[in-house]
Amino acid sequence: MVGASGYAGGDLLRIVAGHPHLELAVATGHAQAGSTIGSVHPHVRSFRDVVLAKTEPAALAGVDLVFLALPHGQSAAVAAQLPESVKVVDLGADFRLKDAAAWSRYYPGEHAGTWTYGLPELPGQRELIAAASRVASTGCYAVSTTLALAPLIAAGVADPEDVVVVAASGTTGAGRAAKQHLLASEVIGSLSPYKVGAHQHVPEIKQATGARTLSFTPVLAPMPRGILATVTARPTGDADPAEVLRAAYADEPFVHVLPPGEWPRTSATFGSNAAHLQATIDVDSGRIVVVSAIDNLGKGAAAQAVQNANLMLGLPETAGLAVDGVAP
Amino acid sequence: MVGASGYAGGDLLRIVAGHPHLELAVATGHAQAGSTIGSVHPHVRSFRDVVLAKTEPAALAGVDLVFLALPHGQSAAVAAQLPESVKVVDLGADFRLKDAAAWSRYYPGEHAGTWTYGLPELPGQRELIAAASRVASTGCYAVSTTLALAPLIAAGVADPEDVVVVAASGTTGAGRAAKQHLLASEVIGSLSPYKVGAHQHVPEIKQATGARTLSFTPVLAPMPRGILATVTARPTGDADPAEVLRAAYADEPFVHVLPPGEWPRTSATFGSNAAHLQATIDVDSGRIVVVSAIDNLGKGAAAQAVQNANLMLGLPETAGLAVDGVAP
Amino acid sequence: MVGASGYAGGDLLRIVAGHPHLELAVATGHAQAGSTIGSVHPHVRSFRDVVLAKTEPAALAGVDLVFLALPHGQSAAVAAQLPESVKVVDLGADFRLKDAAAWSRYYPGEHAGTWTYGLPELPGQRELIAAASRVASTGCYAVSTTLALAPLIAAGVADPEDVVVVAASGTTGAGRAAKQHLLASEVIGSLSPYKVGAHQHVPEIKQATGARTLSFTPVLAPMPRGILATVTARPTGDADPAEVLRAAYADEPFVHVLPPGEWPRTSATFGSNAAHLQATIDVDSGRIVVVSAIDNLGKGAAAQAVQNANLMLGLPETAGLAVDGVAP
Amino acid sequence: MVGASGYAGGDLLRIVAGHPHLELAVATGHAQAGSTIGSVHPHVRSFRDVVLAKTEPAALAGVDLVFLALPHGQSAAVAAQLPESVKVVDLGADFRLKDAAAWSRYYPGEHAGTWTYGLPELPGQRELIAAASRVASTGCYAVSTTLALAPLIAAGVADPEDVVVVAASGTTGAGRAAKQHLLASEVIGSLSPYKVGAHQHVPEIKQATGARTLSFTPVLAPMPRGILATVTARPTGDADPAEVLRAAYADEPFVHVLPPGEWPRTSATFGSNAAHLQATIDVDSGRIVVVSAIDNLGKGAAAQAVQNANLMLGLPETAGLAVDGVAP
């Protein structure tokens, strides 16, 4: 595991520790190389005495699969040094986009390429992931929006033009680097939007959902984990969007369209790989409104990455992954 | 003051205690009648030994102005018993709507009538409030949305069709009655939507903003105070929405369109009568996105009610009201 | 499982769902009988369609083991109706105390009796639990204090006179009944003590630790889970308290005395059965200071109960229990 | 005002903006010099266009009074450059201690000297402050502990030996510098102790209270503001500690001993200069237990500093200061 000192890395370590079929070969950190996992992630007692190594390809060459949990833009350099025989799941954005121009609009550096997109719940995607040796895990905002919207656009139920999404995320989505605006003093008791009008996840969401224009506004919420996405689109027919979603996910172990009248809350997905959905038609505007809840470190990052790894390694897809959240 | 035991009532008491020109004549409660204010609102030390009275018209007849801070639907009965010489500011929804049918769609009981709408920042409204003896203060969601949207529709800059709003509120907006879903255990660490697809504040927001269709989704956020509203609409021209708002509020003491690049956060309005706004054009969808932040108990309830009372009593409009939030 | 609708019940359900050897036979609720587990505990998707039954002995008679997760004082009546062949783990206070007079000082109703005390980490207790058919699981404050203090008193290192404990708990410790002082609006952003000077858990803590006089002050903290206990006592010698604790728990899977210089934080135990400890000598007063952190629903309630059940059923003691917390 | 960019500086600016007799002459920052107050403290709209100056003695020489809100150890250098005619209130620790050796045990650099101690509620201290041109404001932990304990020791009611204090503070007490352990992700949902066994505020607390040995354990709590201190001491007689405190503070405008049965909560002091106290005798141990609540930025820092400034400038002691908290 590369990049084990961040929040996604910490959750990956926790999941791997409880996974019946995975074994931790090596965990690397950058500034934290040389520290024990216990000191960097006090909650991961299972690996408390394991020392974080430096990120060196040699140390990784012998393993079956590598998780890359690095800041956006840093995965490509590491991936380039890994032999084809080593499977790789990248939690970063580097290999998600098909469109190099879209990459360049939002990220520094060149577009690194395009890997198999790691959202098994998209039609046909599960099989592609199982056959791939390189998978780009979905971003957290993209998971929450795509699960809510993609089946509706695919079914011709929602208009791909003029989709509006407002999504609020817990603070771990912003990473572990010490920044003033992420201090508890600044965040507790406050909601604040960021990157309004131009967010780097828009191209990924459009690519994954089929939306053609998208207004996406992210909000920082005073909680450590969780994304609640409110996704609205104009209907293109009379279908009940909740029923369309219910049919689309009937066999999915981790995506739950709630019973009528129950709406998602992020806490119910805390620590799990679950996504909770509900949908309705707004009586005044007639728009479709879908709300989805995930744990941004769970289905939005670490747990989803393990789900992809399970598929790539031929393991049961649900192995080591919680469907039940830790609540309250 | 009628209904002094709830959260809006508590904030009204606090503001009145520090107000240079207002004096508390009597405070009434319902279940809490007979208790001291100190035991019901431990933060209001100024009135700690004042005992809450029963709500009886006789006790109120001699005062200059009455604040009604009652649950929706309970103001009309009390108001009917007050002489015309007593000015009244109602913090409830009873007298906000012009359209009786809209009232009946969302509230039980008959429509009680329509009072002067208590949002001084709407064009011409300040003068109407100053001349009125009955004012219906604006609802908290309506304040946050109307300040963001009304000038844009009025200026022909935003299309009144297909407005989409997602607004998250702190828990005091849901009142002080003990309900399981409002327990700290349920709320902390969680975001959850409610009344999705059909919210009772939609008619008020449409009436106040001029929007013709409105998708409004409210979200409960893990914080006690604050509303962050994300308001999106299609543009009807090339005007910069931030500049339109800046011009509209240039002389307003409590509405602040932030400098370019700065976006509102709810904590900055905590405990104050301020509203913070910012706007942009979304690069992908071309939609106008306005974000507004208020304190739902401040500009959204108690402080706004005092602003209206100041106007009605011929006092300086800003008397006793904070423009600066208590942060962090 | 009896009393499945509360917070401890919800966490028990979650743990049972992921337990390799336990199977849910029946879950009962009181007011919630007839509801699905999915509607009562939205996070427990594994049992989402299971309907809560009424609490009737007949329904429980055939099972191997019953968990009682009822309000204090209600376990005895149910337990009396269960045959001896059914093993019982009680999460309530009913059967913890040896001293009937101590019970009567703090609880209404008669003392129901004394069961085997369910804290496996006490010397010799693990074997007693394994042999018992009735076990009274330890209270959450008692777990956090006892793990910190009992080995020091037993080793003659800490004076059992004049022990001072201040322990702060998350809100789930106060239960799921809707009470005004537990509303999110009241709790977020606030710390408040309660039952100062006379707390009902004092007799249990004295019985379990050997303390002879104890000042115990509980504090309600703005978080859903977790107890942080600061335990101070006068030393009776020169021993390093951290070393004494380290030796006492060297072989314990769930109790971790942290490396020197690292202090517990409650989040690191979230969702797990772990307890984290650290100790030092205060330089000014010379007092021993031990700080312990647990999840009040984990090692403080549900996970501990499962640990006891594992022992009673001859299962691996750690089966189905997390040692790693879900953090952040 | 020197050091206006931190949290105490921000609260000072807010209080000064609403103060009837104070006027802001100049505000200086360090790294933030050149920025507007609006960008550094978005909540302080009153001074939104004021630009933070560099900290240069020339700019300060003409003012009546300077507030120093700098990190501990940095006040002395600035103070040395101010003429005697300029009154100074220091919010830092530099000039609080009488004992140079105690300073050296906990702080780097030499002891700078001893100024008049800025806690007006200590007997005789109000007059000394009014006559002083240099005042060292009390530290936040010291305020909360001293108000609870000093009258009891002075009255011979509490034994000054073996005092035990556990005090939990909101995160603003740790300052605004970006540090990983203060990130919202780390703090929300967690309690953690720090500097256990040797805290730098112990000498100040002993000096101010008369305690002779003191075990002081600070805890970081998941909230931005507030200190809740639990102070225990052995009684030296039969006096009711609550009555002793009630008598001591009968005429104090900002210190409130609550009615019997009501215990302090930090939220009730939020944004104010109030301190709330309650006391009892623990039934098991016989120890005195006093709990005090303050806002660490209010009575613990900025508001207290203004209270001292009011006295030094011959203004009404309560001018510009709130006795009522902003809650919830």
UniProtKB/TrEMBL annotation, chains A, B, C, D:
The active site is at 140. It is found in: Cytoplasm. It catalyses: N-acetyl-L-glutamate 5-semialdehyde + phosphate + NADP(+) = N-acetyl-L-glutamyl 5-phosphate + NADPH + H(+). It comes from Dactylosporangium sucinum. Keywords: Amino-acid biosynthesis, Arginine biosynthesis, Cytoplasm, NADP, Oxidoreductase. GO terms for biological process: L-arginine biosynthetic process. Its EC number is 1.2.1.38. Pathway: Amino-acid biosynthesis; L-arginine biosynthesis; N(2)-acetyl-L-ornithine from L-glutamate: step 3/4. Residues 2-130 form the Semialdehyde dehydrogenase NAD-binding domain. NCBIfam families: argC (TIGR01850). One of its GO terms (molecular function) is NAD binding. The keyword Nucleotide-binding does not apply. Catalyzes the NADPH-dependent reduction of N-acetyl-5-glutamyl phosphate to yield N-acetyl-L-glutamate 5-semialdehyde. Belongs to the NAGSA dehydrogenase family. Type 1 subfamily. Gene3D superfamilies: Dihydrodipicolinate Reductase, domain 2, NAD(P)-binding Rossmann-like Domain. This is N-acetyl-gamma-glutamyl-phosphate reductase. It holds the Pfam family Semialdhyde_dh. GO terms for cellular component: cytoplasm.
